[in-house]
Amino acid sequence: MWRAGLKWMFLIIGTTIGAGYASGRELWQFFGHESGLAILLFAVFFSISCFVIMKISFQRKSTDYLPVLRDIVGNKLTGIYDVMIFLYLFTTTVVMLAGSGATGQAFNVSYWWGVLVIAAALILLFVKDISGLLSMNQFILPLLLSGLIYILLLFTFDQKLSLFSHWHEQRNWTAAFPFTALNILPLIAVLGAIGNKVRSKKEIWIASLGSGVILGVISYIYNNSLIQIADELLLYEIPLFAILKEYPFEMLVFMSILLWFAIFTTAAAGILGIVTRLQNHFTIPLWLLVLLTLIVMVPLTTVGFSTLITYIYPIYGLLNLYVLSRLLLYPIWNKLDKRV
User: Fold this and answer.
1) How far is Cα 282 from Cα 11, in angstroms, rounded to an integer?
2) Where are the alpha helices (DSSP H) in 106-183?
3) Which InterPro entries match (predicted)?
């Protein structure tokens, strides 16, 4: 039970901690100053949303996101949100591919080499179907989370930062809503694909609470660190590198590798959501669907990494607020839908 719960927890975290999050760009876009309460609310909303999605997925024994989506938004809006989820997964996976290229550029490696390496790795990952993704997450995510927390706490102690000095300033609390909403659609897509593999509600509790607490703690410490270097962030495509600039080069290399793996896990989750949905229409091997999808995506990565996040993420965050409200109020909505 615990092992299975942790497996789903790492899948959730791997879906969320991608290029935008792990680099610090996404956190800074939504939070920044006066956001402690916003991050706390995000952790609560995120856990509730994960629980509801997984519970529906478990009840439906789903293998793709469509049955889960239908339960959440209702029959009338399912078609609209089906298209939205597909486009969201597509565009954010392009962001991950672009993020891999940007990470390579930081070490004077060709942008296109960075993109092609992650594309090849994604194809190889899905040769073993979904089991390859789950195995990878269980190995990579503990290492990634430990490394990120270590760097952030090291920076916090080295700079003698206070973690709770700004709790009387919380005017940005509303940011919790679009930020949580931003991360909901990929979770519906990914968790909707594993409903037939979940065995008990205890697994759901472990996965949803664990992921919310871990992401909440990391988000708070990360945001607190970024506030201290706010004036320098305009100079960096990847804010994490601004935190690392005073540390040895070896640490920069280590965190860059972990950053790449964060990008990879989210790209893999996005691809999973796309290809499990496409399997309803195409009877070809999963890895071949991945290959064809990536062939379409790669040319679109020419838009700058930070540009993609700056414009795409807030728009989707606002569009997804309805989905978030349905998840948070699911018991009420569900009863009303059954009466109608």
Assistant:
1) 25
2) 111-125, 130-158, 176-182
3) YkvI-like (IPR038728)
- Dihedral over Cα of 97, 300, 189, 126: its sign: negative
Report the distance separating Cα 136 and Cα 128, nearest Å.
11
- Residue 14's nearest CA partner among 191, 242, 154 is 191
Cα separation, 257 vs 144, whole angstroms: 9
Query: What radius of gyration do the chain's Cα atoms show?
Result: 19
Diameter of the chain measured on Cα atoms:
63
The tokens describing 325, both together, are 């409200």
d(CA 125, CA 106): 25
The CA distance from 37 to 64, in Å, is 34
Quick: pLDDT tens for 41-62. 999 999 999 999 999 999 999 8
Q: Among residues 64, 49, 59, 67, which one has the least CA distance to residue 12?
A: 49
Give pTM, 2 decimals: 0.85
Helices first, then strands: H and E counts in the chain = 17, 0
Listed residue (95, 87, 131, 91) closest to 22, CA to CA:
95
Residue 321's alpha-carbon distances to 3, 73, 317, in angstroms, are 32, 12, 7
Cα–Cα dist 239/117, whole Å: 23
Domains and their CATH numbers in the chain: 2-339 (1.10.4160.10)
Of 252, 255, 241, 249, nearest to 305 (Cα)? 241
Q: Give the pair of three-digit tokens for residue 338.
A: 């059954």
What is the SS3 string spanning 235-287?
HCCCCHHHHHCCCCHHHHHHHHHHHHHHHHHHHHHHHHHHHHHHCCCCCCCHH
Contacts of 288 (CB under 8 A, 6+ apart): none
Q: How far apart are alpha carbons 146 and 214 in whole angstroms?
A: 11
The amino acid sitting at 326 is: R
* Spatial separation of the C-alpha atoms in residues 237 and 129, rounded to whole Å: 34
**For the segment 86-131, what is each residue's pLDDT rounded down to a tens digit?**
888 888 888 888 878 877 776 788 888 888 999 999 998 888 777 7
| pLDDT value of position 339 | 58
Dihedral sign computed on CA atoms, order 235, 306, 45, 222 = negative
CA atoms of 89 and 190, how far apart (whole Å) = 10
